[in-house]
Amino acid sequence: MRRNAPALAKITSPELPDVLQRTRLFRRLDRGGKSGITWIVGPPGAGKTTLAASYARRRRLRSLWYQIDAGDADPATFIHYLGIAARDAAPRRRKPLPHLTPEYRKGLDIFTRRFFQELYARLKPPFLIVLDNYQELPEDSKMHALIRDGLEQLPRGARAIVISRSEPPPAFARLMTYNALEVLGWEELKLTPRESEGLARHRGHLRRPKIAAGRLYEITQGWAAGLVLMLERTKGDNPPPLPPDAAPPGVLFDYFAGEIFVKTDAPTQEVLMLSAFLPKMTAGMVARLSGERRAGRILEELTRNNYFILKHAQAEPVYQYHPLFREFLLTRARSSFSPARLMRIYQSAAAALEETGHTEDAAGLLRQADDWEGIARLILENAPTMVAQGRTQTLMEWLGALPSGYLEKSPWLLYWSGICRFPFNPPEGRRFFERAFALFRETRDRTGTLLAWSGVVESIVHGYAELTLLDHWIAVMDELLADDPTFPSLEIEERTTQAMSMALLFRQLHHPRIHDWVVRAEALTRKSANLNLRIFTMAYLALYHMWTGDHVKAGLTVQNLQRAASDQELTPLLRIVRHVMEAIYQVHATGGAADLAAVNAGIETSKATGVTIWNAVLLEQGASIALSAGDLARAEELIKATAAALDESRRVDVCIYHYCNAWLALLRRDIAGAQSHMESSLRLALEAGSVTLEERGHVLMAQILHERGEEQQAREQLAQARRITERTRNRVSEFMCLLTEAQFALDAGREADVRAPLARAMALGRRQGYTNIFGWRPDVMARLCAAALEQGTEADYVRQLILKRNLAPAADAADVERWPWAVKIYALGRFAVMKDERPMSFGAKAQRKPLVLLKALIAFGGSDVAQEQLTDVLWPAADGDAASRALVTTLHRLRRLLNCKEAIELKDGRLTLNPRYAWVDSNAFERLCDRAGTAEREGRADLARAWLARAADLYRGHFLGKDDLPWAVPRRERLRGRFLRLFEDLGRDREAAGDWRKAVDCYQEALEIDDLAELFYQRLMLAYQRLGRRADAHHIYQRCCKTLSATLGIKPSPQTEAVYKSLI
């Protein structure tokens, strides 16, 4: 809307002539309520506006004057004009106050408080705000609460006056309860006899003012307008006769105004009646409307005589009749002019108002004239500006005034009807866009066709409930571009590209031309001047890369978005979009700690500005971040907050809410609860048509059913997820499917079936840098990572994943040497310690005692070792207290030496090597032997052999074999016994398989470890015999004899001799 004189008169205080100074009421206004708010209430013509204006002038208060009219029932209109008033009051502040655009509507109370706080900061106390004609607002208007909230922000030293014909509405009750608002009512507002005399003297009409004023006061009872009229009619000192029914002020006013009106000349009467059709006017507007060149003099004379007209001082003065006088003139006009003449007057007045940009009043006159063509033209000329200002409620009222048949014939009117509705009711907005599209296409309006198509798509996406509808509209766009691949303008191309990118993202990631659209969208983000469009397009591109599994490109796109959205002057909506994308990216690409910085920043911006439309999405992403990090308590809080922020009509948001609940329940082992929520989530995903959520949901449902032991149904769910993934080529979903397949095989003990899917998953994870998935379960991932390390799959990537996600090894993974343990201790055949995969060196003599403590702890099993057991062997000569102190000191030194306090726990007088941080080869060896025994008892010979082979790889020598430590002997001998049985079992297994060469290798390896074990000499001789290598068998016998003699001074046992003799 253009800036113009009549529009500004709405926010300009009236210019008063020399009026009666009502000092009695000035003092009353000085008091005001506790918050400086006064409500002036009285009938029309009571002098309310004059009182407020003269008070501001007398007290020399800088004032912001706002004249409320019917158009202010639309909060966005009120905010728009109040923003202009603030700009004029503080011209040095270049940043405009925000418009009340749709994103603020759900948080209107927050927006209001913020808006008024910024407004008051620009005015700086002392100042006065006047809201005139408050009665123009409907009784049920939301504006009452908005204005109340705004006035509550009034700073100390500032004042506000509300002028109304009605008492304060119920919304202001709380202000009155706390005496924050005082009412100056009709009884106080009435002129006193002395004030009436003063007014009579001031106007100078009476020879004896005191006597005449007293008589007039008895008649008018303090009503200022009545007194002015009667003074105009009074001859000498005698009041004029009263009409018999003159009690009501309106009737009295009409009577006396009529008496005066009929005494003016006919041209003046016509000027007055015609000008009354203009709510606010300049002399030029009245002259054009009436054709009377004297219009300016007539208006100025009325002003000079203070005759029910206000003048607003501007470059071209603006005049405004008192409501009573204007209504009187309009009544006269309607009775004086023919219907045809009235129709022309309405149209001419509307044109005058429209020329100066006062479109609200112009629309009102055109509606009275039933000039639908004029209203339609007004709508089409002003719709873009009004939508940008958030004034869609006003625009919808204008559109609603048109006959339905008229609306249905105009595609552009249908289009703007859709624009007004879709932020608040996307399905309704979509229906208008669809009708507009059909008409545009029929009339071959390319611009309108593409804009209406974009509107349809945006309505479907923002509705977040019926995404399946996008399939049809994607096909329509394919048809449109097949007929004509060009765009009418860059702006239309940008809008269409963003909409098509959205449609493909949410429904057709498999579309054959999706890559072309992505490239086009990326180019748009680099060159478009429309920041709003650029940021939203970047957001959709980032989602595209995340949902297709390209986290590198997603990260780069999010970085570009952050740079574009770094300007502090950015609208709250765009700042929140930035934080939403940061949070979504963190869920997809980072994992690790529950870093909720982006979520918190988005929520804080929402709280501060009232832009709440993204709250549910932010909170859901926060819950996903917390769930991924294992912070279940925080996740539960965020899920509960999500429930409060949900819009049930947006199925996608509700679907994600149930998904997060299912994920949380699964982590807490509430399998029944997880299944219930996941069933709801999947149902909503299918109803909404969200392909990405559907494939993600099938994977988690498969895992839930697997936990319930329903393997067939679990496999069916996983198969459904795979079918979708094959179509969408979503690498993240493929990763999830492969991991789930490997998990099912691992849980079933089908080791052979684990290898292929796990290898493919980890290779994909390495290539794409995956560190998190939806439905992340640390215990499951730890087992899969351990299995991958055992089979030698992508070891570097897997170790990095373990470290990044701080995965704790599962109980059955404690023997996995390749796991990236914080501390690794080797005690079989050597004593060595590794910290973070690097060997530690211990050269200082001062480190000896801590290392002896570590060896003793391992020798006694490494778990739940009594403090006394250690002190008895390490400090045998010390008394109990001294030994205990020595142990505590040495333990402190050992922890510091290892640089890992968590590796050794001391609890209730017992020490334990924490299996989450510390790995010991001797303990792992025993666990592997135990697992082999269990597998053999279960009849799983192949698995038993695999465990035995791994145990054999660990046994590189006897336990602390180079240390002469008596207390280490029991553990050494027990381990040696297990070693002997292990290698004998391995060798005999290979003998049974007829693989004598491998049997030879096994026995040779055993002898390298323990060359005094005669059993292996015996089995080796027999193996050589089966291979026909008698000389080698003889050589082995000779080696046995020499070794036993040199080491122990004994001969071979009878069993060894018997085997040897059987060979010769």
Automatic annotation (TrEMBL):
<dbReference type="InterPro" id="IPR027417">
    <property type="entry name" value="P-loop_NTPase"/>
</dbReference>
<dbReference type="Pfam" id="PF25873">
    <property type="entry name" value="WHD_MalT"/>
</dbReference>
<dbReference type="InterPro" id="IPR005158">
    <property type="entry name" value="BTAD"/>
</dbReference>
<dbReference type="InterPro" id="IPR051677">
    <property type="entry name" value="AfsR-DnrI-RedD_regulator"/>
</dbReference>
<dbReference type="Pfam" id="PF03704">
    <property type="entry name" value="BTAD"/>
</dbReference>
<dbReference type="InterPro" id="IPR011990">
    <property type="entry name" value="TPR-like_helical_dom_sf"/>
</dbReference>
<feature type="repeat" description="TPR">
    <location>
        <begin position="980"/>
        <end position="1013"/>
    </location>
</feature>
<dbReference type="InterPro" id="IPR019734">
    <property type="entry name" value="TPR_rpt"/>
</dbReference>
<dbReference type="GO" id="GO:0006355">
    <property type="term" value="P:regulation of DNA-templated transcription"/>
</dbReference>
<dbReference type="InterPro" id="IPR059106">
    <property type="entry name" value="WHD_MalT"/>
</dbReference>
<dbReference type="Pfam" id="PF24883">
    <property type="entry name" value="NPHP3_N"/>
</dbReference>
<dbReference type="GO" id="GO:0003677">
    <property type="term" value="F:DNA binding"/>
</dbReference>
<protein>
    <recommendedName>
        <fullName>Bacterial transcriptional activator domain-containing protein</fullName>
    </recommendedName>
</protein>
<dbReference type="InterPro" id="IPR036388">
    <property type="entry name" value="WH-like_DNA-bd_sf"/>
</dbReference>
<keyword id="KW-0802">TPR repeat</keyword>
<dbReference type="InterPro" id="IPR056884">
    <property type="entry name" value="NPHP3-like_N"/>
</dbReference>
<feature type="domain" description="Bacterial transcriptional activator">
    <location>
        <begin position="920"/>
        <end position="1064"/>
    </location>
</feature>
<keyword id="KW-0677">Repeat</keyword>
<dbReference type="InterPro" id="IPR016032">
    <property type="entry name" value="Sig_transdc_resp-reg_C-effctor"/>
</dbReference>
